[in-house]
Design brief:
473 residues; Uridine Diphospho-n-acetylenolpyruvylglucosamine Reductase, domain 3; Alpha-Beta Plaits; 17 helices; 35% helix; FAD-binding oxidoreductase; FAD-bd_oxidored_4_C; FAD-oxidored/transferase_4
Length: 473
């Protein structure tokens, strides 16, 4: 990649202005390290453009001069997809200043939003319009829409509403040569050729920079029931989900599986999180059911459905939230699990998916294989069992040196991924590939799929300036 000359630096500064220019080491530091603090790079400069036109001009200048570009949103990712290389010759383009909600159309059930908008701010704006934007994840207070799109974020409501890809109608994208594709269409039906927006969703900034999107909104639920259930096994949780879906009219929004260890650690490290049960159980399921007023008393329906599940042996005990505060406490426990792993000494993480019916088999086989390799390891699997996405994380054994544990990452990754691939699974369900999983993608992906992706990359970004070293290299 080209080293920035004084002339190029001056031109970039002119394009973004003083408010969009960061070149002092201390000021750049927050943009150069990933959320977990495991990956740190260097950058020639950090740019924070304010408009799509500015992004286009910056990218065009970088393209003409062969300068590598690292697009960045809230930098909350877990695979170092928004971290520049250690070489220090790349430009970080952070979209945080492009945070406007351009328009909400309640009749169309759509919102036009810029890439730098924080997810929680979009959720609040949608609610003010008596609508809901259903993407929900632990980092929603800091992650940005552009990053959600670039990684095809999932979260806890995928069971009901789908991933980010399912929530998009149109995109605005700055291409690798600086041209701007305006695909901000609000159409629900459009069969005029290739659906180009899907090239850029989940591309992790390797094909262009998403600067705005048209997203789907949904009716604001009039009733919500939240319950924490103790279950005897993952197999029981899958059977429970299958039984509850027709019983609730398929109104289940979230269905989260957590092990006993998760409840213990959340209770230890997170304020106001307590065990609501009289005795410990091996597994728990957190469920949320949302519906409109026409469904009758949804809380009563939930209690009746859980009573039937207890009779069948799918559920050992259950607590239905009596009020909003108790429901929020249940969710606080679930959403804290990424953080508590830090407090517990760190973990080797896997963001995997398998068919829902195979979740129990995967958990059994992968847990046994990991414990055979590291007998004192603490398996910490949790996640969206309703869509087959499990965060199969392994906590460091108590007393083991962190560096010694992290040195086993590749070995444990191979063990876990080989098991799930034999079940038709994926090594990345919602976090992406980034830099962390790139070698593993090359090892495990179908060669033809890799070839097709590389052809797309070569067609759109022939000079390889967009997010070098991520996804495909």
């Amino acid at each position: 990649m080209t080293i920035l000359t004084a002339e190029i630096r001056d031109r970039l500064r002119d394009l973004v202005g003083e408010k969009g220019w960061i070149d002092k080491a201390a000021d750049m530091a927050p943009y150069l390290t990933d959320w977990r603090g495991l990956a740190t790079g260097r950058a020639a400069v950090v740019l924070r453009p304010e408009t799509t036109a500015q992004v286009g001009e910056v990218v065009a200048l970088c393209s003409r001069n062969g300068i590598g570009i690292v697009p960045q949103g809230g930098n909350t990712g877990l695979v170092a997809g928004a971290v520049p290389s250690p070489a220090g010759d790349q430009v970080v383009i952070n979209l945080g200043r492009m945070n406007r909600i351009r328009e909400i159309d309640p009749l169309d059930y759509t919102v036009v939003v810029e890439a730098g908008c924080i997810l929680a701010d979009l959720q609040t704006a949608a609610k003010a319009a008596d609508r809901v934007f259903p993407l929900s994840l632990g980092a929603e207070g800091s992650c940005q829409i552009g990053g959600n799109l670039a990684t095809n974020a999932g979260g806890v409501m995928t069971l009901r509403y789908g991933n980010m890809r399912d929530l998009v109608l149109g995109l605005e994208v700055v291409l690798p040569d600086g041209r701007i594709w305006n695909g901000l269409r609000r159409l629900r039906k459009n069969n005029t050729g290739y659906d180009l927006k899907h090239l850029f969703i989940a591309a992790e900034g390797t094909l262009g920079i998403i600067t705005a999107a048209v997203l789907k909104l949904f009716p604001l639920p009039q009733q919500t029931a939240i319950a924490l259930m103790a279950v005897p096994s993952p197999q029981a949780s899958v059977a429970l989900l299958a039984a509850l879906r027709p019983r609730t009219g398929d109104a289940i929004t979230a269905f989260e599986l957590v092990p006993r260890l998760a409840l213990d650690l959340a209770g230890r490290y997170v304020p106001d999180v307590t065990d609501p049960f009289d005795k410990p159980h091996p597994w728990y399921v957190l469920i949320e059911i949302d519906a409109g007023g026409e469904r009758g008393d949804i809380r009563q329906m939930t209690e009746e459905a859980l009573a039937a599940a207890i009779e069948k042996g799918f559920v050992l005990d259950a607590v239905v939230a009596q009020n909003v505060a108790q429901g929020q406490k249940f969710w606080r426990m679930r959403e804290s699990l990424a953080e508590v792993q830090k407090e517990a000494g760190g973990s080797i993480r896997h963001d995997i998916s398998v068919p829902v019916s195979r979740v129990p088999q995967f958990l059994e086989e992968a847990t046994a294989a990991v414990l055979k390799a590291i007998p004192d390891a603490r398996p910490f699997p949790f996640g969206h069992v309703g869509d087959g996405n499990i965060h199969f994380n392994i906590l460091k054994p108590i007393g083991m040196e962190p560096k010694s544990f992290q040195a086993r990452t590749t070995e444990i990754n191979t063990i876990v991924h080989d098991i799930l691939l034999a079940m038709g699974g994926s090594i990345s369900a919602e976090h992406g590939i980034g830099a962390v999983r790139r070698a593993e993608l090359e090892r495990t992906a179908d060669p033809l799929e890799l070839e097709l992706m590389q052809r797309v990359k070569a067609a759109l970004d022939p000079d390889g300036i967009m997010n070098p070293g991520k996804l495909l290299g």
